[in-house]
């Protein structure tokens, strides 16, 4: 008799409890849904769990897909005469934000949007090789006449390349020059010839501010084994 009364009370209590919980949820506007899993059968619980796992997995995959898509864009792109090494890997350098911002400042000060930093490696210095850096002016139509192919590679345009100087005495591009551009909106560009890129590939072009002065500098060169204190002379593997 006592057991029957207990069952009767439980039957009356559970519907009331569910109603109160639902009403509180509706009135208070809780963001977290109430858990009524105790009302589900074993099969329903398994199905519900599988749904939650699948939903979370899809959300995780989508977040990874968005992250990987945004992280694939390189910081620096070869916009003219890109080169590959013997293994078919792109030979490239990176223009750091400090270097690109400094080049942007110089372009603004000189009112020259076509200004670029030219880097050349020559024999000499206390370690066998040294960097030579100078400012140069690129052809004004380089951005509009460089053609992009389907595989996102760029190729030289003949009317941009010359072995002579232009009418103003400013150096123009040679047939073995590679032009790199920063992808940060500054318009910063670096020009390196093919033989120098062989030695500098994988390096970063940085701008440093030190007690001895401020300067553009090559850092993190994977081929350099040693360098001098001034940072302009180095040895390679």
Automatic annotation (TrEMBL):
GO terms for biological process: iron-sulfur cluster assembly. This is Putative iron-sulfur cluster assembly 2 like mitochondrial. Gene3D superfamilies: HesB-like domain. It comes from Uncinula necator (Grape powdery mildew). Pfam families: Fe-S_biosyn (PF01521). GO terms for molecular function: 2 iron, 2 sulfur cluster binding; 4 iron, 4 sulfur cluster binding; iron ion binding. InterPro entries: ATAP (IPR016092), ATAP_core_dom (IPR000361), HesB-like_dom_sf (IPR035903). One of its GO terms (cellular component) is mitochondrion. Belongs to the HesB/IscA family. Residues 91-141 form the Core domain. It comes from the Eukaryota.
